[in-house]
Specification:
The complex is a heterodimer of chains A (92) and B (89).
Chain A (H helix, E strand, L loop, with lengths): L1 E10 L2 E2 L7 E7 L11 E5 L8 E5 L2 H7 L10 E5 L10
Parallel strand pairs in A: 4-6
Antiparallel strand pairs in A: 1-3, 1-5, 3-4, 5-6
Chain B lengths: L1 E9 L12 E7 L11 E5 L8 E6 L16 E6 L2 E4 L2
Parallel strand pairs in B: 3-5
Antiparallel strand pairs in B: 1-2, 1-4, 2-3, 4-5
The chains are: A mainly beta (92), B mainly beta (89).
Chain lengths: 92, 89
């Protein structure tokens, strides 16, 4: 899983049928220091995340399908949690 | 998934049997500002997208799901046509 920030959303009327009703969010993966890392991705939202929130994203198809309760949905990324806090020990 | 612009299509007469009848599109992945992000990729189409349209596509085995029960030999697939997208600063 990866920590990311929700930066926007996508509207798509015509899509693969199992994706009907799914909320599509644009997420920017973050590094350990909270800075943007890599390119912005599109993830289905399984938890009701909003723009600006830090979230936990799975980047694997099976897990992503499970997250929206549709095993055979053609998805490869899903938001599975909203991050309250991250503690990274500086000693290690 | 990732945003992309459809920039072309591919014609291949001789191909794996699982690909018969599939439409293959050339996509340029793009960032939320519309700028190109990475190399173009060939993806199977399951939503009727055309050249010039903004779409989103899935990578990996899941790209073949729209074609079940045929297990298409694809690793990228267009799964939605994008009407609009919004980015908040």
């Amino acid at each position: 899983m990866q920590i990311a920030r929700v930066v926007g959303n996508v509207v798509a009327t015509q899509k693969n049928a199992p994706l009907e009703g799914a909320k599509l969010m644009l997420v920017q993966p973050l590094g350990a220091d909270g800075s943007p890392r890599g390119s912005v991705l599109l993830a289905v939202d399984g938890v009701g995340a909003g723009v600006h929130e830090r979230v936990l994203v799975v980047l694997e198809g099976r897990a992503a399908g499970e997250a929206i309760g549709k095993r055979l949905a053609a998805v490869d990324a899903a938001i599975v949690g909203i991050v309250d806090a991250v503690d990274i020990s500086g000693d290690l | 998934m990732q945003l992309a612009r459809v920039i072309g299509d591919v014609v291949a007469t001789r191909k794996d049997a699982s690909l018969l009848g599939l439409k293959l599109l050339v996509l340029q992945p793009m960032g939320p500002d519309g700028s190109p992000a990475g190399r173009p990729i060939v993806a199977a189409d399951s939503v009727g997208a055309g050249v010039g349209e903004a779409v989103f596509f899935v990578r990996g085995k899941e790209a073949s799901f729209p074609f079940l029960p045929i297990e298409a030999a694809v690793d990228a697939g267009v799964v939605g046509i994008v009407d609009d997208w919004h980015v908040e600063a």
